[in-house]
UniProtKB/TrEMBL annotation:
InterPro entries: EamA_dom, EmrE-like, WAT1-related. The keyword Transmembrane helix applies. This is WAT1-related protein. GO terms for molecular function: transmembrane transporter activity. The lineage of its organism: Eukaryota, Viridiplantae, Streptophyta, Embryophyta, Tracheophyta. It is a multi-pass membrane protein. It comes from Acacia crassicarpa. PANTHER family: WAT1-RELATED PROTEIN (PTHR31218).
């Protein structure tokens, strides 16, 4: 009996990171739907990003203050400016663009296009000469082919809708939607891709910044608070209705709290732990699960219309992502 317990315990420890990453993607998929519901209820996307960034920063602040008080470097003016740019790319700009796209598309469409982040990051890294392509090396070929296939999937999702795959039963959860807004697929595509470009630049810049400021929790806290302030300024310029800042005790409040505390706070902790334990390639391998969860929830629970073009494009995007990830993994193993 004792040996059996050890075997089960060892198995749990072995696959702990796998289980946690599955929960992370499920948590992110819930964020997408609760956010869409709050937008349909009337919450302004820019106000939402502002509040959720500030909530996340305040939630992380005590952990960053106490856990990294001995390892946190001194914040110089140059470092503060660097964090300001990181916040602009990775928090305020990317989040505002991403969530604004939900007003013109749906969660399935957004998450499919969001999976091209790895490919866009690779392209920008090549342009900036951070990545080197050697077409005689199978690893480089896999990365190039993966990028091309992913972008091909994006083109299919954006330009081809195809026949509707009808729901087999009524939705379990009903979200009232403005059908006129949700027809602007091309506009939504541009917003998601712009968000991915901002995040790609953020990832590339963050790798350098962490060498000068090796305190991940503190850096995340700074970015959330500064990004929230940047988003607040942007919201004031874009939204002149003061009542938009009012949030009642309803779905809007729950969306902000869940997205800020759970998504930006708790799930960031989990991803940092998994990255430290298994490496960044392991973490990115689970990102296609977000699309799977969102498609399943959209079709079976919320009752969103699912188009053939979305399914074909999603398959190509996921295949391309795994090809790119395989190339990166082999490259890391070689090092």
């Amino acid at each position: 009996m004792e040996g059996k317990r050890c075997g089960v315990g060892g198995l749990c420890r072995k696959f702990k990171a796998h289980f946690l990453m599955i929960l992370v993607q499920l948590g992110y998929s819930i964020v997408t739907f609760i956010t869409e519901a709050s937008f349909e209820h009337g919450l302004n996307p820019y106000v939402y990003v502002t509040y959720r960034s500030i909530v996340a920063g305040l939630a992380l602040l005590p952990f960053a203050f106490f856990l990294e008080r001995k390892t946190r470097p001194k914040l110089t003016l140059a470092l503060f400016f660097e964090i300001f740019v990181l916040s602009l790319l990775g928090v305020s700009s990317s989040a505002n663009l991403y969530f604004a796209s939900l007003k013109y598309t749906n969660p399935t469409f957004v998450t499919i296009l969001y999976n091209t982040l790895a490919s866009i990051t690779f392209i920008i890294a090549v342009i900036l000469r951070v990545e080197v392509i050697n077409l005689r090396n199978p690893r480089s070929i896999a990365k190039v082919l993966g990028t091309v296939v992913s972008l091909g999937g994006v083109m299919i999702v954006t330009l081809y809708r195809g026949p509707i795959i009808r729901n087999i039963w009524p939705p379990l959860i009903h979200i009232h939607k403005n059908n006129n807004i949700h027809e602007e697929w091309f506009k939504g595509s541009l917003l998601v891709i712009a968000s991915c470009v901002a995040l790609a630049l953020w990832y590339i810049m963050q790798a350098c910044s962490l060498k000068r400021y090796p305190a991940q929790l503190s850096l995340t806290t700074w970015m959330c608070l500064i990004g929230g302030a940047q988003s607040a300024v942007f919201t004031v310029l874009m939204e002149h209705n003061k009542s938009a800042w009012t949030v009642g005790f309803n779905i809007d409040l729950w969306a902000i709290l869940y997205s800020g505390v759970v998504s930006t706070g708790l799930l960031t902790f989990v991803q940092l732990w998994c990255t430290e334990e298994k490496g960044p390639v392991f973490v990115t391998m689970f990102s296609p699960l977000l699309t799977v969860f969102v498609v399943l929830l959209s079709y079976f629970v919320v009752g969103d219309q699912l188009y053939l073009g979305c399914i074909v494009g999603a398959i190509l995007v996921v295949i391309g992502l795994y090809s790119l990830s395989w190339g990166k993994e082999e490259e890391q193993d070689a090092w």
